[in-house]
């Protein structure tokens, strides 16, 4: 057994008073074992709520890392610091809730226009296509959350469910649905009648591009799933369709799908959601791109960009 001192990086939660403390763990202990030992002393301070790092260092230590590696083989007298991450919630739960918003909001506005606009709306082919695209997209996202995605972290801060849900429920839910299904886009609207927005060929071309983007996005997600064995944080260099040019082609194809809807409709609400979503995905993609290059070094393909081929 070895002894480790645990101090706090910030004020501990009220149910975990008593730091600094000393715990004894096996010689081959990992960071996960240390977290479990802390949770054994303070049951409400569960492992996923803890962030462990070296004293004076903010770098998060992954649970699989052995203490012998953290302290270069010398564990006696070693000191770690723990930070309270606050109440946590499952990533899968957050995704299910945020994607469910548009699946509820769009049908409510599409099928009950009198409640929102004060009159009935004879939906144009354009509105029908958009309605189908949105529902299929978020049904796909829900199914991927359940059957495809494997998360490197099991939980995230509870507050994220409100932030993430607001993004989807308001921007791609309420704003987009209210704008696109209103009378200005209806079957008799001058904005639609006699324009390309009512041209079956144009709508079918858009449907084809949208379907291509959605299926490509799904293919990328499946590729990432196959790289990570269940229950692990294993990371490997993704290859194949889309990954030849990009670190995050899934974000690129998702953007293409929303650009199609925005071009079809010309809706300001659609463009707002598309731009906001792209900016957020670009930030994630750039971070992942940097992490890939840092982790895999020269073995990572040099010609790849983060999210937009040859550009970004």
UniProtKB/TrEMBL annotation:
Record GO cellular component, one term: endoplasmic reticulum
UniProt keyword terms in alphabetical order: Endoplasmic reticulum, Lipid biosynthesis, Lipid metabolism, Membrane, Oxidoreductase, Transmembrane, Transmembrane helix
Source superkingdom: Eukaryota
Subcellular location per the Swiss-Prot or TrEMBL entry: Endoplasmic reticulum; Membrane
InterPro entries (UniProt xref): 3-oxo-5_a-steroid_4-DH_C (IPR001104), SRD5A/TECR (IPR039357), TECR-like_N (IPR049127)
UniProt keyword DNA repair, yes or no: no
MF annotations from Gene Ontology: oxidoreductase activity, acting on the CH-CH group of donors
Residues passing through the membrane, by range: 256-286
Residue ranges constituting the TECR-like N-terminal domain according to the UniProt record: 25-75
Membrane topology recorded in Swiss-Prot or TrEMBL: Multi-pass membrane protein
Residues of the 3-oxo-5-alpha-steroid 4-dehydrogenase C-terminal domain: 155-312
Keyword Endoplasmic reticulum: yes
GO BP annotation list: very long-chain fatty acid biosynthetic process
Stretches of the chain forming a coiled coil according to its record: none
PROSITE patterns xrefs: S5A_REDUCTASE
Principal localisation: endoplasmic reticulum
Similarity section: Belongs to the steroid 5-alpha reductase family.
Name by which UniProt lists this protein: 3-oxo-5-alpha-steroid 4-dehydrogenase-domain-containing protein
Organism: Collybia nuda
